[in-house]
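Repro:
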Amino acid sequence: MFINNHSYFSLRYGTVAPESILKMAQKKGIKTLALTDINNTSASLDFVRMAPKYNIKPVLGVDFRNNSIQQFVLLAQNNNGFQQINTYLSSFTDVSDIPEQAKTLEDTVVIYPYTKCRHFILKKNEFLGVNTEHIPELEYSRVSLNIDKILILHTSSFRDKKDFNTHRLLRAIDQNTLLSKLSLNTQGQANDLYIDEKLLQYQFAAWPKLIENTYQLLDQCTISFDFEHIHSQNQKTFSGDGKKDFELLKTLCEQGLPYRYPNPNEIILNRIEKELN
């Protein structure tokens, strides 16, 4: 049911650590959860690695936004889809240039926000996402709706009001403005909370097909990485011997010291020793 969730890797926006999200989800009985940070996939591999510890099936994607304006959410149906999303994300040198409609990518699903995109002619892999605010309008438009193309798009960014207040500070920093002058369209909403799955089901009880559609989508998404056989490619030593590396570093410090401090005192020498250790 939860296909749009943000961690603090949604830079200058999110407030919650990826593992904290998984802990909360486990307590709330959530079995499948999508991590869709804003214009970012930095937390994705750790999220997938940690998810089994909390008996949660991880799904990966990206929430593509211009500032705080959501354009669309892309979810990966498999590893290839995740690679496609990363390549697509990397094509934007300026994230303020993200278009209203997503490029067609293999093994991905696109979810557009209902209010601004309901006029779109949707492709096979494209859907509209609604939240509780849209329910009255759904009731009004029930006859004309293509119910098979609508999902529940509840955004989860904060645990509580304290998180939301922290988020507003981050947004003010990002916008280089005073908190009192922070525009509403550059920040999230106070009700973008991590909530119980049963509550979300209750809110959409009159629309069981939307609940079914959302679960079906999550069932179609599977991400798997072999972490057991991955080894660091980082060079372990410079010279082939750790002790020789240390002696070389110490020698270079001694050679460079006169350039920075022609007459080093005991405080400086002690500090060098501390840094080397």
